[in-house]
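Hello,

Our lab assistant flagged a job as stuck in the queue for most of the afternoon. It eventually completed. Since we weren't sure the result was trustworthy after the delay, we are filing this so someone can double-check. Below is the sequence as submitted and the structure that was eventually returned. Let us know if re-running is recommended.
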Amino acid sequence: MKKTVLASLLSLSAAATMSMSQPAAAENAREQVIIRCGEQAAVKGSPKYFTGSVRIDPLYPANNEMRSSGGSVTFEPGARSHWHVHPVGQALIVISGVGRTQEWGKPIQEVRAGDVIICPVGVKHWHGAAPGSAMTHISICEEKEPGKVVEWLEPVTDEQYAGNVESK
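-- returned structure --
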């Protein structure tokens, strides 16, 4: 894993060095976009995809050049996503609270602020808050095709959430 991270950092460094040598005209062809805090309305997580109280604050949308999108998702105690899979995977960065996540057929894992969860392509899983704590994570997903970042499946039952029933 450390070699992969080092290789990624070296690649980024090389790309940055090459981009600095490009003519100024190419740099001026595009601009950064700043999305100000509060410019995008938060939405309530739909009961079609979540159990309990969930707030989704969009951070940035995918566009034609950048296929990833990001959002801040806050789960109140006991709230959770339904089972789901991602066609290109997902990264979750826990920024506050205590949460839970589980892969189909595996035990529940507790997650805390500072933890990063990498959800591989096609792995059935869920995530949400622990019973006695809210949890907020940043979600970063990439589109396989426009608008397609997740395939939602069945709800996580109360028994599964409590860890009383194995998911098989």
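-- support follow-up --
The delay was a queue issue, not a problem with the job. The result is valid. The longest strand covers residues 90-103. The radius of gyration is 18 Å.
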